[in-house]
UniProtKB/TrEMBL annotation:
One term of GO molecular function: DNA binding
Name this polypeptide is given: Heat shock protein 15
Family: Belongs to the HSP15 family.
Taxonomic superkingdom: Bacteria
InterPro entries assigned: HSP15 (IPR025708), S4_RNA-bd (IPR002942), S4_RNA-bd_sf (IPR036986)
Pfam families referenced in this protein's UniProt entry, alphabetically: S4 (PF01479)
GO biological process: cellular response to heat
SUPFAM superfamilies: Alpha-L RNA-binding motif (SSF55174)
Listed Basic and acidic residues bias regions: 129-139
Alphabetical list of Gene3D superfamilies matching this protein: RNA-binding S4 domain
RNA-binding S4 domain ranges (all copies): 12-75
Keyword Transferase: no
Keyword ATP-binding applies: no
Length: 139
């Protein structure tokens, strides 16, 4: 009996499947993400106790990334990453969208600025600049 056949015979919770598929490090994090609306099934919010089915489409938001995956197998056990990746398939649109967003972030096009307090190095440069300017004006 293969892993997929064995898992199909059992009922499983969505938070446990997300943990087994290695989307989250713990079931508690998976549950919090579901309750926070970061995991959606067919475009709607769902509960941690929902029973996922093979073929269902999930949208999972983690940090800046949003993945759309289709469940291909069910498992209650957390295994290695290569086996966990067999539990789902990411859609082509999702892959393209994530790659595009990553390249925009890398290029700095999303407006992520680091305004705020200057770093120690920047403060030294400011002090050096103003210190030199003060001495020149006194001469």
């Amino acid at each position: 009996m293969t892993l997929a056949q064995q898992a199909n015979d059992e009922k499983i919770r969505l938070d446990k499947w997300l943990w087994a598929a290695r989307f989250f490090k713990t079931r508690a994090l998976a549950k919090a993400a579901i309750e926070g609306g970061k995991v959606q099934c067919r475009g709607e919010r769902c509960k941690p106790s929902k029973e996922p089915k093979v073929g269902e489409e999930l949208t999972i938001r983690q940090g800046f990334d949003e993945k759309t995956v289709v469940i291909t197998a069910l498992s209650q056990q957390r295994r290695g990453a290569p086996e966990a990746q067999l539990l789902y398939r990411e859609t082509e649109e999702s892959l393209e969208r994530r790659e595009r967003a990553a390249s925009l972030r890398k290029a700095g096009a999303l407006g992520m600025t680091t305004e705020g307090r200057p770093s120690k190095k920047q403060r030294r440069q400011i002090h050096r600049f103003w210190g030199d300017a003060d001495q020149r004006s006194m001469d």
